[in-house]
């Protein structure tokens, strides 16, 4: 996982040098601050799957970096770490906690509301790694797909805060008996986020 994060950082550093400078919608508007975003996450799992039925979803953390701005479109990379407390060991094993790490890529579109406010719909995908880490044994991986939006409030040209909500579907690669396969290899989540954004 550390190698993937290091690789993401190197790619981000290279691509960010090509980023287009933001041009405000009007002289009175406060530009959307989106270069770097620190996020607190709260996933809420639902459906007939192990994450929903057999865990409590804890708060997580994430960070995003804008790689390229093109007019009102923003191409954004990120990383997230989420933690789940196991409430039923029948399917997930005798672990107290399991952890999911995601590397994300998303496309955002900036819709102007008024001077300080922006609405940003987005769509993206993620590489997910699901680890049992207390004790640390076993791992399975997969892909996640998400769609949602952000409401952003800009304090000035350098700082803003935003609230986000995404629907996420994850599909994991795991070998299980046929009757348990769909229960263990997928997850549906609503992910709420609160972010502090820096230029």
Overview of this structure, please?
The chain is α+β, with helices and mostly antiparallel strands and 199 residues long. The chain has helices at 2-16, 50-54, 89-92, 178-184, and strands at residues 36-46, 55-57, 60-70, 73-86, 97-109, 111-112, 117-133, 136-154, 159-173, 186-198. Strands 1-3-4-5-7-8-9-10 form an 8-stranded antiparallel β-barrel. Strand 8 and strand 9 (159-173) form a beta hairpin. The chain is elongated and about 55 Å long.
Work out the number of β strands. 10
The computed structural class is alpha+beta
Distance N to C terminus? 27 Å
Oligomeric state of this protein: single chain
DSSP strand content: over 45%
Largest sheet: 8 strands, antiparallel, barrel
How would you sum up the global shape? elongated
Using only C-alpha atoms, the radius of gyration works out to 18 Å
Mean pLDDT: 80
Helicity level, as a percent range? 10-25%
Which spans of ≥5 residues are poorly predicted at pLDDT below 50? 14-27
Annotation field: number of helices: 4
Element-by-element helix/strand order: HEHEEEHEEEEEHE
Strand order of the largest sheet: 1-3-4-5-7-8-9-10
Topology summary:
Layout: H1 2-16, E1 36-46, H2 50-54, E2 55-57, E3 60-70, E4 73-86, H3 89-92, E5 97-109, E6 111-112, E7 117-133, E8 136-154, E9 159-173, H4 178-184, E10 186-198
Antiparallel strand pairs: 1-3, 1-10, 2-4, 3-4, 4-5, 5-7, 6-7, 7-8, 8-9, 9-10
Provide key terms for this protein.
10 strands; 8-stranded antiparallel beta barrel; single chain; alpha+beta; 199 residues
């Amino acid at each position: 996982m550390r190698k993937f994060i290091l690789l993401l950082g190197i790619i981000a550093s290279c691509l960010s040098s090509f980023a287009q400078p933001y041009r405000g919608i009007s002289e009175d508007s406060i530009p959307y601050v989106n270069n770097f975003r620190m996020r607190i996450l709260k996933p809420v799992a639902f459906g007939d799957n192990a994450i929903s039925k057999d865990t409590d979803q804890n708060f997580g953390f994430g960070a995003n970096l804008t790689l390229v701005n093109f007019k009102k479109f923003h191409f954004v990379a990120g990383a997230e770490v989420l933690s789940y407390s196991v409430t039923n060991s029948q399917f997930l094993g005798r672990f107290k906690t399991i952890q999911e790490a995601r590397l994300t890529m998303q496309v955002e579109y900036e819709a102007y509301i008024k001077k300080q406010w922006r609405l940003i719909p987005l769509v993206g995908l993620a590489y997910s790694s699901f680890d049992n880490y207390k004790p640390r044994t076993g791992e399975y991986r997969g892909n996640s797909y998400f769609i949602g939006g952000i409401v952003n409030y800009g304090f000035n040209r350098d700082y803003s805060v935003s609230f986000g909500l995404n629907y996420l579907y994850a599909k994991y690669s795991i070998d299980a008996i046929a009757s348990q396969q769909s229960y263990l290899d997928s997850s549906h989540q609503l992910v709420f986020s609160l972010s502090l954004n820096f230029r």
